[in-house]
User: Fold this.
Amino acid sequence: MDYSKLKGRSSYPFQTLAVAVAFSPRLEAVLAEAARLADTFTAQLLLIHVGKRTSGKEAVLQEICGRLGIDRESRMIWQSGEPISCLLRICKDNLVDLLVLGALRRENVLRYYLGSVARGMSRRAKCSLLLLIEPKVSGSSFQEIVVSCVAHPKTLPTLNTAVYFAKQVGSRKIHVVREVDQSGLAMAMSDDSPEGESTQVKDQLFGQEVMALQNLIDSCNPGEIPVNSKVIAGRPGFAIRQYTENSGADLLVINSPDGRYGIIDRIFTHDMEHILERMPCNMLIVHSRIPD
Amino acid sequence: MAKLSQHDLVVLLLAISTMLILSRIAAEFGKKIGLPMVMGELLIGVALGPTVLGAISPSTYSTLFPFATNVHVSLALDAIFSLSVILLLFVAGLELRLSLFLQHGKVAVYTGFGSMILPFVTGFAVAWFLPGWFHLDSGTDHLLFALFLGTAMSISALPVIARILLDMKMLKTEIGMVIIASAIFNDVVGWLIFSFILSMVGQSGERAGIGYTVAYIVAFAAFMLVVGRFILNRSLPWIQSRLSWPGGVLAMSLGLCLLCAAFTESIHIHAILGAFIAGLTIGDSVHLREQAREIMHQFVTNFFAPLFFVSIGLKVDFVQNFDLGIVALVLGLAFVGKVAGAGIGARLGGMSGRHSMAIGFGLNARGAMEIILGSLAFEAGLINHQVFVALIVMALVTSITSAPLMRRFFEEKR
Assistant:
């Protein structure tokens, strides 16, 4: 397989959109969402099922696809094997730009630690992922989007992808948010400091982050969509999860992780794991193909 | 219930107030000329202890600190000093975030291991092969002493390091975070090993107990950090929202700290391990409000920490026990092991040569953590007076030299 086309490939536009087909009660809703998004992005639709191919499954799928009008240029791939590895390989082989998956807002403790397919894919994402927590046959709306803008080279491509997504789906507002982790600061100020020094240092730090965030916004072109920029204090991942919940946003956009997250990252939760622990809304994890 | 007499109470209160007031004045003065606060507190201990006051006016010294003549006051002070060190380890744990170490991947792992292994090995090897250099007492357990010196060389002082990075405007940079993450690793592993060493003191004839001790420490730490954290993460929001603020969370946190300390002491592992792990467990929770953390910190660092650091000077005659040879040896070991170990680790992790050296000098600061470690080892009879004094000097010298040496490597780069 020639993977040279993947190297440096931009994270948007979405030319090939895939959907992970799981024969669950939410199958029709997930397929409807994927088909609608493929139309919106004028992308080719790919249906992927990892599991045994049976006539029963084929019949169910055919019936749902018929109802939703998915038959034009879409393709179906059946494959047996370990779900996450198979999905990753198929997405890579087919130059998938966006993989749509259904996901639970919160999983039970055991399942969270052992890992589900949707969360497992999020931890190892090699293409952008859209996790839908409440897929609807009528289609989800993405009116308000929160973009996590951590200080990382991947963030600008992520922000640009979020803006592209927002323009295509007709979003009303984009919240561009940066988290400031004050833990190191607390340690540094633990020895007694003169009155006001702590506040002054915090203000300076916030000021720098506000400027950095503004530079980032200036580098993208949100067009007519209003942008609300915000610097928040808190633990990375946890703070933005709370912000997203409180703002009532429909979609949270974050960078794909550097390297693979393992069980130890779930025990000593940090960054993306705080979000996966309890997803505040639908999530778009942008894989910008910048070398880790 | 046995009670302190009126005279005992007066002496006790007088001793505490003298320590608190004088150490605060000295710390503030030291701060103005750029010295760590702990240095002022230590100096007041030296001035009030056998080194100065005991030598100039023995009667005033024995009236104010009647360790040898009044068992009631002596016991009360000892209880306060023990509580101080337990709470100091609790707030040390409160500041550490294990996830920071995981966040910074390969370079933090290499630096963390490098800054732990090489200092440990060099410290252990010198103590093991050249025990004569340390003038060890005849009853000293040679293996435990070597293990202790290795641990003492590998520990770091996170608050000192964080302050240096903040002053250099490097706290939020990649290098700054690598240093912080590595220091966290050093502290967590260092205190676990030290707890093991302390629990082995006095059991030299029972090496079979080593397995049980290690198992107890690992099981307790794992239980608290996995199950304890899980429970705490679910109960803290309830505690903070339903109980009075901040009294509820403070009482519960300090209560848990003392409960864990009592538990580890009861299973013959030192109480400090319980307090440290309790601090780690509580401090790592995303639900702990910064304000609560700050209050606990202020409470301990402004009342218990000065008492503890002053008490160090009260116990030892620093002039009489100052051995230049041992001080030079300990200093040399500290610098070579830490700077080389952390530097090599950072280099292997992908940092440039100059930045690796800067990271090495950054992690070399030992600060208050080393002083606590040395004091506990001295109390347990693991080290003699001379080694204890050498460790205190090393802690101060490494803390003072860390910032200028680090700055030198960064500025040359610019």
